[in-house]
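Please go through this protein, sequence plus structure tokens, and consider how the sequence yields the tokens. Keep your notes short.
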Amino acid sequence: MPGKIGVGINIGSTSIHFAQISYVTNPPKLIRLSEFVFPKDEDCFSSSNALKLREFLQKEHWKIRNGLVGISGKNINIRYIPLMTYAQEKIQAIMDMEVDQWKEKIGVPIESSFLRIKLVVPNVPGGIMLLVIAHDSFLQEVTQFLEQAGIGIHGFVPSSLALAHAYLQFSHKKTGEHVCLLGISQNQTDLAICSEIELSFLRNLSTGNATSTQASDAEWEKAEAKRENPFDSPTIQRMDTEGNLAEHQQIADILDASLKFARLQLKLGELEIQRILYVHQDASWTQSVESRFHCSVEPLEIAKLGIDLPATDQVFVKSLSNFAVAAGLASLARQSEVPLELWSACKRRQRELLHRQVFAYAAIAIAFLCALFCILRIGSLHTESMEMHQQLEGKYQNMLTRSARIQELTEQNQANWARVQAILPLVYANQDILALLQWLPQNIPDYICLSQIVVKQSEKKIVLILKGIVEESSVDVYTMLKKFRQALEENPKLKIVQEKDPKQHEEGKLEFEIRLEFVHPDSKT
């Protein structure tokens, strides 16, 4: 709901006030005002009036997608409940019980909202909870009426709360001052008491005040046709003297009774009011109220709110205080959490369904993202597996090649051994050479092929020259050669006297040459 533009819709007994405030600049500016007057002798919220309101808004170039509606009169009730020392978690249960009792009492469906008043009240340790109750049928009727007129609404709040908010936001205040705010119309009166920083008391009354309905039907129609401000009509200001006195007395009595009620409900003892600010087109009653309560009575000025109205709306500037409630609603409409906000049961169910749909759509979106991630991950894993398969395939081919080479070496060793077997009879007389030839096949690793065995014999010693090739396998060629050399060194009858550096002429093959001497047991080292 928060945004740069706020729209307030105040539903009175004879008209609807619209106000639009822009918060792009500081201070905020009032950029549009309009008033729709209900036709006489007709149900205010009829379908025909909704169509007329739609035409009126189209003519005034209004598009309201999310407005906050102020209501008052007989269809709303404000109650005060002492909380004593109840814990915070029990407040909701207390309010629910109070609402259930009211449902049983009046026998019709109701909607409710509550707000804890921020007052330090010595006689009420737990503070006071302000409970607002409205007829659900009335809320649904107004909702249907506004929707037929093409108006989107966010919710309902008491007009007295909007009146107090307009004062706290846009009016000049004095330190330590308590102000009584009055909003008077034909059949309802809104009252609020505020300090310079916060709300203290709200009340709405259903009255029979007629100070705003003295004009004839013809005069109202004439003013509307000329698009003049109805509040400036001299006929409205012309009032019967006897009627004036009665109505002035009624306003004073209402104010006196409300102040006594506030002192009783808030346990404040003698609550002193320094100023009375009113929202009303007729000011003839103010003198009698001022003399009775001994304080100044002034129109509510929203001076801290800039004016940026089109030329066609400048007529409303003269009676700007009459739109204070609508301006307060427009300011409240920007808040993320509106105090004392009401919803009709039907609208609340629609909102809950919308939240469920949003949750469902969010769940579907999350599922889609998860599926997309899985698909991408599967594609990535498939690519990695293909790369690993290619690597394994290459290693497998290398193993096959090495296996073939090992097979060739084995066959060559077998052929060499056949040659050795052929010359064994010739060297049988030499036991040392014979023992060596028998020892060699058992100690030559499979991956080593002896390409040449040279025996040189003299009177003093026998020299044996071994030449061969180490074929690469799963074990490094140098490791295999080292293993073979260690086997030669461990033979007590052999001594390595010379060894040429191994040479690797092609990949995987290492050529070596080792010169050995036979060692006799009786020889001296």
